Amino acid sequence: MTLPVIGAALGVSELASYRDWLFDKNRDLEIQSFSNPALLVSGDWQALVDEAKAQLDGFGGRYGIHGPFWGLNFANPDPEIRALVARRMAQGLEICEALGATHMVIHSPFTTWDHHNLATYPGAMERLTDWVHESLGDAVKRAESAGVTLMLENIEDIDPAWRKALAESFGSEAIKLSIDTGHAHYAHGSTGAQPVDFFVRSAGEMLGHVHLQDADGYADRHWQIGHGSIRWHEVFKALGELEAKPRLILELRDKAGILPSMDWLEREGLGQ
Length: 272
Fold this sequence. Notes:
By secondary structure, the protein is of the alpha/beta class.
């Protein structure tokens, strides 16, 4: 059996340190330097793009960015805020186009409150879906033209089927699902969600991207793999059942944990 090749989420300033490791197997890469609100407000991101492109010269792997997300909710009921969210998505895609990136991670709008309360308000899910289409619709169309896939990541999601239905409502190959293993494990441990491998199976062939991080089921830890309580053999078993080949990205708070995480995964026969 060929083990899946694992990549990582890095800032532009960290690319040089991991260049040989990334290039050796053309690992999946996510650049996380472009979601800073101050950078987006100033619009002064071209120098970072130029530096990243120089570092990635000759790279043959799949790469993308984490899109804008701080304080941005696609389902905001205020139309002026939805317009701002749409502008930030346009900025993120402009950066993707300049960088040659082919994915952009965006955040699910569903909250813990939504899970427990939406059903008590007639038509609430339909209104939420309409608001998300208003915030994100232009970005989906632009992503289609630019060859970028928007990866809709679970944040507070308890029922993964909601996010899948929302992504499917666009009827576009330019929006797929992302799973953050630590977010799913937090939701499992703290809010009664299903385990992480259930999130993978729910996503099915719509899964395009995975943030791999370990956690304790209480908080969003971003620990190195093997330092938390996620059942990794079950997660990788579920991933192995898919025809899809999602981008597998280590997203660790301490980047010094990348290579030890890889050592752990290799010892367990899960990834390379």
